[in-house]
From TrEMBL:
Keyword Nucleus: yes
Record InterPro entries: Ig-like_dom, Ig-like_dom_sf, Ig-like_fold, Ig_I-set, Ig_sub, Ig_sub2, Obscurin/Obscurin-like_Reg
Signal peptide (from-to): none
SUPFAM superfamilies tied to this protein: Immunoglobulin (SSF48726)
Name of the protein: Ig-like domain-containing protein
Family: Belongs to the protein kinase superfamily. CAMK Ser/Thr protein kinase family.
Gene Ontology terms: cellular component: cytoplasm; nucleus
Gene3D superfamilies registered for this protein in UniProt: Immunoglobulins
Keyword Phosphoprotein carried by entry: yes
Amino acid sequence: MVSDGGELVFTIKDLSCRTMLFVKEKPVRVFRDMLNVKATPGEDPELSCEITKPDATIKWLKNGRVIRVSPKYEIIQKDYLVKLIIHNAVIMDSGEYCCEADGIATRARLDVRDMQHMFAKELKDVQAEERGLVVLECETRRPAT
């Protein structure tokens, strides 16, 4: 431990010597890297990683710019877990996010995309008489634009 450093005195009977002990702190390492995340608008995506030093100084960046705590961004640091929550995601939140801790970094991409158009209910085969009325129905998972 760093607190173990200081002056040491060794004594045997009337013989003694002194020295200084310097304890170098282990550097922070990323224990678990961030993973890329996909989200749809309105969701609250989370980016997280684990580091080896619970009291490390953390800095979050998006596309190289520092992120500050705000209603949009929530930063949580609990023990070894470091987390960034992006509230009410929009497409403009897409990009590269970086978590820096005492000189080391891990990066991941956030990709915010509208849901693709998909059918919830597909068209069904219909039989009709010539000149008869035919009604075709289908349903999409989200409103068509």
